[in-house]
Amino acid sequence: ATTEIYTLSLHDALPISRVLDFTPLLDTEAFRPLCDPALFGQVGLDHGVPVWQNGAIDLSPAYIYTQGSAV
Prior knowledge:
Layout (H helix, E strand, L loop, with lengths): L6 E5 L5 E5 L15 H4 L3 E3 L2 E4 L4 E2 L2 H7 L1 E2 L1
């Protein structure tokens, strides 16, 4: 079986970059639609906030910084 890898990278003007393993979030109701790799890949930015489905799903950059790994 193939295991999909769901990660989200955040880079900004600061000299700090983070990578978040999104997999645990996919078990929550709010993020379950993103189990579809095609939808997950449609991430966009709205004022620096990662969003999907025109903002119906979003993730705080602060969460990525606190829960993500430095790269």
